[in-house]
Recover the amino acids of this structure.
């Protein structure tokens, strides 16, 4: 068998792609995987602030009722969007684990990134101005001595005399 046959690599790649596609599609259409997909995109209505599929609130009656409704909707052949719409109509928009990316709810998606970007720009500007003012201070300190008015010099001498601090200058 020759490994360098003209169609060998093409057939090997096709077989690998087919194998990966089969692995990912196994169980993709089953009701259990769809239930798992949907119950992780809905919130429990009991107020525990947990994902419906993972609500472990002791004595929670809402999660079992919602899961039963979800199973019935899947069995009835409803699409994902129809199921979400039915849950929103019954429990309100808070039943969705993530807000829809449209209308005013789009702010919930944009705001965290906008706040992060504003904080990053603000911090960068703050550091820039600190460094710039520090350079001005160093330049002023390295420069010639600041001339003192003769009246101010006399006042400093009097203060030193009265506080018995020796004059070093």
């Amino acid at each position: 068998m020759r490994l360098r046959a003209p169609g060998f690599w093409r057939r090997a790649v096709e077989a690998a792609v087919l194998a990966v596609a089969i692995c990912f599609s196994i169980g993709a259409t089953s009701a259990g995987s769809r239930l798992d997909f949907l119950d992780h995109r809905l919130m429990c209505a009991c107020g525990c602030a947990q994902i419906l599929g993972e609500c472990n609130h002791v004595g929670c009656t809402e999660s079992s009722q919602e899961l039963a409704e979800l199973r019935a909707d899947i069995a009835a052949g409803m699409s994902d969007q129809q199921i979400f719409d039915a849950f929103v109509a019954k429990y309100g928009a808070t039943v969705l684990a993530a807000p829809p990316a449209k209308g005013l709810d789009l702010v919930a998606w944009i705001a965290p990134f906008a706040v992060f970007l504003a904080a990053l720009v603000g911090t960068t500007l703050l550091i820039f101005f600190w460094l710039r003012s520090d350079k001005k201070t160093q330049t002023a300190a390295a420069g010639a001595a600041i001339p003192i008015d003769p009246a101010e010099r006399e006042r400093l001498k009097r203060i030193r005399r009265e506080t018995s601090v020796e004059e070093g200058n």
Summary: The helical segments are 8-25, 31-39, 61-75, 80-91, 106-142, 150-162. The two ends are 98 Å apart (CA to CA).
